Amino acid sequence: MFSRVARRAFSTTKFNPYKVTVLGAGGGIGQPLSLLLKLNHKVTDLRLYDLRGAKGVATDLSHIPTNSVVRGFTPDEGDGLKEALKDTDVVLIPAGVPRKPGMTRDDLFSINAGIVRDLAAAIAENAPNAAVLVISNPVNSTVPIVAEVLKSKGVYNPKKLFGVTTLDVIRASRFISEVEGTNPTTEKVTVVGGHSGITIIPLISQTKHKLMDKEKREALIHRIQFGGDEVVKAKNGAGSATLSMAQAGAKFANSVLAGFEGERDVIEPTFVDSPLYKSEGIDFFASPVQLGPRGVEKIFPIGEITAEEEEMLAKCKETLKKNIEKGEKFVTQA
Fold first, then answer.
1. What are residue 236's phi and psi, to 5 degrees?
2. Was 198 annotated as part of a binding site?
């Protein structure tokens, strides 16, 4: 039994009333992502949407005793998507098809681009003030797709659109700890650029391991950039990174909510509408961003980097510009 003091403390605990929607909640990322959001005390109203299975996932999660209501929505209800989005604070989009062996994130474009475009249109109509967290790959192109759709509907807010690149960050922490024999929870690696292959730039020079042997460093960077291929190969056709991506998505969502609450120094690398390289025709770029009540409060430059990292950045920008233009053209030339 609780003591009188414990009962009083428990009864007066306040939970923040945030509404969060997951679009694609029945998929490989969507299900574990929804579980992690159900366990987040900041989330009191969790809406799950998918073409099928969302109600089953919601019912399953509803049995977990946390201070939130969870509901599932499907298109067969007519207004299922509208109800899932109505007045929500945060929308996460993991919807789409996963990578299979031999596929790059860019190979997913032809399928996932249309899915993301249609979901963005629904967000514009039903949740124009929500923060939108894009997980669906290729993020380098899907984030610009969402931006163009929101612009066409007159509701684009660059401070509330995010490409979730957190998986690159947590991989970097894990992989560098394996190389250096350290505790991964104490490793902090800033990852900038984009969210595929050579556009992913882990800034090893800004870590406590900046003097790492060149051969070891190059192997580490390659593994961070192409870590997703490890998972695709290991799953042997059964999917791509789902559990680690769910953890990354939930971590970033929690940071966005912490920013909404006004917590100080909430800083995460994320792919956003950025001024850093607009003069070079690159409208979106991932770098550390301070999160706050309005979403993006401040975008930080990448800081001092080595000649090797400058070379990586040049290659990144060349590819990233093409990826962004591909997403923008998908909407504007449709």
1. 50, 50
2. no
